[in-house]
Amino acid sequence: MEQTERIEPVNRILDALLRLSAPVTTGRIADYIPELAKADPDAFGIAVVSVLGHAYEAGDSRKEFTLQSISKPFVYALAISDLGLDAVHERVGFEPSGEPFNAFSLDDQGRPANPMVNAGALLTSSLISGQSSSERFARIHASLSGFAGRVLDVDQKVFESERESGDRNRALAYLMKASGSLTREVLDVTEVYFRQCSLLVTTYDIAVMSATLANDGINPMTGVQIVDSAVARHTLAVMGSCGMYDYAGQWAVRVGMPAKSGVSGGISAVKPGQFGIGVFSPRLDDAGNSSRGVAVLTLLSEGYGLNLLQHPPRPASPIHLLKWDADVLSAGIRGDLDFVDLELIVHEVAEELATKKKSDAEVRFDLTHVTSIGEAANMMLEQLVTRLKESGFRVSIEDPSMLVKVGVGQGGLA
Amino acid sequence: MEQTERIEPVNRILDALLRLSAPVTTGRIADYIPELAKADPDAFGIAVVSVLGHAYEAGDSRKEFTLQSISKPFVYALAISDLGLDAVHERVGFEPSGEPFNAFSLDDQGRPANPMVNAGALLTSSLISGQSSSERFARIHASLSGFAGRVLDVDQKVFESERESGDRNRALAYLMKASGSLTREVLDVTEVYFRQCSLLVTTYDIAVMSATLANDGINPMTGVQIVDSAVARHTLAVMGSCGMYDYAGQWAVRVGMPAKSGVSGGISAVKPGQFGIGVFSPRLDDAGNSSRGVAVLTLLSEGYGLNLLQHPPRPASPIHLLKWDADVLSAGIRGDLDFVDLELIVHEVAEELATKKKSDAEVRFDLTHVTSIGEAANMMLEQLVTRLKESGFRVSIEDPSMLVKVGVGQGGLA
Amino acid sequence: MEQTERIEPVNRILDALLRLSAPVTTGRIADYIPELAKADPDAFGIAVVSVLGHAYEAGDSRKEFTLQSISKPFVYALAISDLGLDAVHERVGFEPSGEPFNAFSLDDQGRPANPMVNAGALLTSSLISGQSSSERFARIHASLSGFAGRVLDVDQKVFESERESGDRNRALAYLMKASGSLTREVLDVTEVYFRQCSLLVTTYDIAVMSATLANDGINPMTGVQIVDSAVARHTLAVMGSCGMYDYAGQWAVRVGMPAKSGVSGGISAVKPGQFGIGVFSPRLDDAGNSSRGVAVLTLLSEGYGLNLLQHPPRPASPIHLLKWDADVLSAGIRGDLDFVDLELIVHEVAEELATKKKSDAEVRFDLTHVTSIGEAANMMLEQLVTRLKESGFRVSIEDPSMLVKVGVGQGGLA
Amino acid sequence: MEQTERIEPVNRILDALLRLSAPVTTGRIADYIPELAKADPDAFGIAVVSVLGHAYEAGDSRKEFTLQSISKPFVYALAISDLGLDAVHERVGFEPSGEPFNAFSLDDQGRPANPMVNAGALLTSSLISGQSSSERFARIHASLSGFAGRVLDVDQKVFESERESGDRNRALAYLMKASGSLTREVLDVTEVYFRQCSLLVTTYDIAVMSATLANDGINPMTGVQIVDSAVARHTLAVMGSCGMYDYAGQWAVRVGMPAKSGVSGGISAVKPGQFGIGVFSPRLDDAGNSSRGVAVLTLLSEGYGLNLLQHPPRPASPIHLLKWDADVLSAGIRGDLDFVDLELIVHEVAEELATKKKSDAEVRFDLTHVTSIGEAANMMLEQLVTRLKESGFRVSIEDPSMLVKVGVGQGGLA
Question: D3-304 has which fold?
Answer without folding.
Answer: Beta-lactamase (3.40.710)
